[in-house]
Specification:
With about 120 residues, this protein is mostly beta strands. It has no helices and six strands. The chain has one domain (about 10-110): Beta Barrel (Thrombin, subunit H), CATH 2.40.10.
Length: about 120
């Protein structure tokens, strides 16, 4: 698979993490997603799948996404979600690879699943 370059980063994505809020009893609980940062990305299709959930057929799209390695992108974990800024589609982060390519962070994302 060819490595991405600056010209292939055609998409704009935002990364959201859950905020921590006080539940009123001294505990912190997960709140709503809040945007942490935006960057350019390259999407590569990894095919789709279908899952039968609650007697319904649901479509899922899986993508490989390259973003430049930075202090922000190296903090990504599977607890975060990614949004396509232009299309407004949210993706769950299934896997995050910050080790294989020092200049890039490779993400496996999936639409149609809970983030």
């Amino acid at each position: 698979m060819a490595k991405p370059n600056a010209g292939s980063l055609r998409e704009r994505v935002a990364f959201d993490a859950r905020s921590e809020i006080d539940d009123g009893y001294g505990n912190t609980v997960a709140g709503d997603f809040e945007e942490r940062f935006q960057c350019r990305a390259e999407f590569r299709s990894r095919g789709g799948s279908e899952a039968v959930m609650a007697a319904r057929l649901e479509g899922r799209n899986t993508f490989g996404v390259y973003v430049r390695s930075s202090s922000q992108s190296r903090r990504l974990t599977t607890d975060w979600r990614m949004r396509d800024v232009r299309r407004g589609i949210s993706y769950a982060l299934v896997a995050v690879d910050t080790v294989t390519e020092p200049a890039w962070v490779y993400l496996t994302v999936q639409s149609g699943v809970a983030a």
